[in-house]
Design brief:
single chain, alpha/beta, TIM Barrel, eight-stranded parallel barrel, three-stranded antiparallel beta sheet, 13 helices
Amino acid sequence: MTPGQYLFARNLLFRLDAEKAHHLSLDTLRQLEKLRLLALFSRSQPSSKPIECMGLTFPNCVGLAAGLDKEGNCIDALGRLGFGSVEIGTITPEPQEGNPQPRLFRIIERDAIINRMGFNNPGIKAGADNVAASHSFRKQGGIVGFNIGKNKVTPNENAVDDYLKCLRGAWDVADYITVNLSSPNTPGLRDLQAADETARLLDTLKEEQEKLTLSSGRRVPIALKVAPDLEPQHIADLSEVFLNGGLDGLIATNTTISRTEVAGCDYQDQAGGLSGAPLTLRATDVIADFYSHLGDKVPIIGVGGIMTAEDAEVKLKAGAKIVQLYTGFIYNGPPLVQNILKSIT
C-alpha cells in the first residue's frame, strides 16, 4: 500500500465515528486475510535484522502496541503489514464492556487521539483462544505479546489476583506478557505504579513466573507498561524496583493525562488518555530517563508519538530496543512501518 492509497482510505474512514471506523478496519483486515487477498495490498518488506530482546528473537524492531487488537483476533492480518511483533489486549480475567460510548476521539489537527475505552475485552479465556487460533504470523517468526490488566470492579488490594489469573491464562499462548499498570481509564490503576506497590506486585508475579516455567517447560518474559506522567524521582525509584526484582522488560510509555499540547482543540476536555504527536517528546524523555538508570539490564520497548521514521530512530537512540506504533499507525498506516524499517537498515 502506498502513502497515497492509505491517505485515500483514511479520509473515508475519518468520516465515520472513530470507534466504528476502528471496528470496520479490523473486520476488513480479517476478511481480506481469510480470503488470502491481504497480500495483494501489502508490499514486500524491507530487509531487516532480527533483534534480541527479553530473551526473544524479534524479526524486526517495529511492533504494534496494545490497544488496537484488543481481542487478539486480528494478529495474522496485522502481521501481514510488516510488524515484527503484535501486542494484543488489554485483557482482563472476566469480560467487560468498558466505558460508555462515545469513548474514542480524534484530534486531527494535532495527529492525536483521546481514548477512555476502559479495557473493553472478551476476558482471558476468549483472548487466549483467539491468540491460539492465529497461525501464519508466528510461523513466520512473529512475536505475540499479551497485555493484561485488572477488572474495573476489582479493588487495588486484590489486583494481584487478577494479574495472576491472566498470567496463568495467557502463559501457553504468549511470547511475552505485559502487565498494564498505567492506563488512565481504570480508576485507581495508576496507584499501582507507586514503587512499593510495584515491588510487591512484581515479586508475586516473578514467583508465579518461575512456577509456570517449571511446570510448562517454557519461560515467558514479563514486562511492565508505565505512564509518561512520571517525575524523575519516581522513575529512579521504579528503576531500582525493576533492577532488584528481575523485570524482563519495560514498555514506556502509555497515554498521557496531560492536555498541554492540545489546548484549544476540540475534545481537549474529554477524559481519557492522549496519544499521538503530542506525546512524542515526553515519551522519548521518559525512555531516556529510564535508560539512564537501567542501561541494557532491563530492555525498553519504546512507544508514544511515533509518527515518522525519524521519531522511531530517536526512540531507539534514547535507549529503546524495540518500538511500537499505535496512533502513528492510525494516521499514517502501513507505509509508516515500511518507512521505519527502511530507515534503520
